[in-house]
Amino acid sequence: MSARAANRDQKERIRRKAAQLFARNGYHGTGVQALSEAVGLGRGALYHHIGSKETLLEEIVTPHIAAMIDLGEALLAQDLPATEKVRRLSRAQMRTLAEHLPEWTVFQRDATTLHGPVRARIFAARERFEAVWAAIVEEGVETGEFRRLDPVAIKGILGLHNYSYLWMRERGRLTPEEIADVFCDTILNGILS
Amino acid sequence: MSARAANRDQKERIRRKAAQLFARNGYHGTGVQALSEAVGLGRGALYHHIGSKETLLEEIVTPHIAAMIDLGEALLAQDLPATEKVRRLSRAQMRTLAEHLPEWTVFQRDATTLHGPVRARIFAARERFEAVWAAIVEEGVETGEFRRLDPVAIKGILGLHNYSYLWMRERGRLTPEEIADVFCDTILNGILS
């Protein structure tokens, strides 16, 4: 392994460990000392890799939300009914959330306690992802598949998905895709018989 | 004012201020020093009133969730169609959330970074509130008003409401009741035309 690859692996290991600690105890509840012990590096070596704790949080969160935005934007460009796009985005979102539960928890929960440029960048990414959902629903309204609802419905649909970081388990009763299907059944068809 | 009433007012003032600080900077991101300065009390006097920071968090959160559970259980006992109960619970939940936004933020977000008995009690309250939602939906299934969906739909409906602590504003474009009505329209009727 080259020195560069070893360095990259080391950073990845630190990010994963930090995400788990932040998810469990909160970003502010995780001291650099605890992080240092968890990854088996001294304070100096740790800071060499992470730069700052806030940069670490940003690096934990950004790749996953960026991947979701890319996936959503690729879906948008496809020639599919809006209903199918909703189903696929929902499945992808629940899969990502399940596979990166600590990272998604830090994204949804801990980024809201920051202030300054890191918070602004993370919130901007959240808004871009919300815009993908809004665009897919708007497409469905334009094709006549969906009714026009107040835009706050999009925030509700996002909440319905994202809030699952609170109860999602790695090996739950349902697969992430099965959860997504129940969610889509609820928001597409409603619960009225 | 009696000494007891003054004491109660003082505690209430500390709770409100602490909720705002916790909501803004996170529970773990709020030091006792910052809290002490915000309420204009020395450390000793502050601890005299709050007992511990964790007790303070519990006292911030508990009255609001208890009030929502009471309201939900009273609704359950009423002779109303399940659809109407869903609408009323949704409106009450969004109104409570809007009027106690810092407290609800601490409840939804910060309680998840605790461990031990306070966390257990707060999570038990959250489950009781979820059980109210589940019972109302079950009532609708039994009367034939609602389709039977997998129980995970309840978690989605909770998320759709609770996640709004992230974007709700005190004077937003819509009233809490109008937001609830859009949410109920989404989950009752679905977005398909």
List descriptors.
homodimer, 193 residues
Briefly say what this structure is.
The structure is a homodimer of 193-residue chains. Chain A is mostly helical and 193 residues long.
Describe it for me?
The structure is a homodimer of 193-residue chains. Chain A has 193 residues and is mainly alpha-helical. The first copy, chain A, contains nine helices and no strands. Chain A has helices at 3-25, 32-39, 43-50, 53-77, 82-99, 101-108, 117-143, 152-162, 176-189. Chain A is elongated, with a radius of gyration of 19 Å. The interface between A and B is large, with 50 and 50 residues.
Topology diagram in text:
Two copies of one chain form a homodimer.
Chain A: H1 3-25, H2 32-39, H3 43-50, H4 53-77, H5 82-99, H6 101-108, H7 117-143, H8 152-162, H9 176-189
Helix pairs in contact in A: 1-4, 1-6, 4-5, 4-6, 4-7, 5-7, 5-9
**Shape field of chain A:** elongated
Average pLDDT for all residues of chain A: 95
Portion in strands of chain A? under 5%
Q: How do the SSEs of chain A run, as a string of H and E?
A: HHHHHHHHH
Into which percent range does the helicity of residues of chain A fall?
over 70%
The count of helical stretches of chain A stands at: 9
Largest protein interface, residues of each chain: A-B, 50 and 50 residues
Number of strands of chain A: 0
Task: State the secondary-structure class of chain A.
Answer: mainly alpha
> N- to C-terminal separation of chain A?
60 Å
Query: What oligomeric state is this?
Result: homodimer
Largest sheet geometry of chain A = none
- Contiguous runs where pLDDT drops below 50 for at least 5 residues of chain A: none
C-alpha-based Rg of chain A, rounded: 19 Å
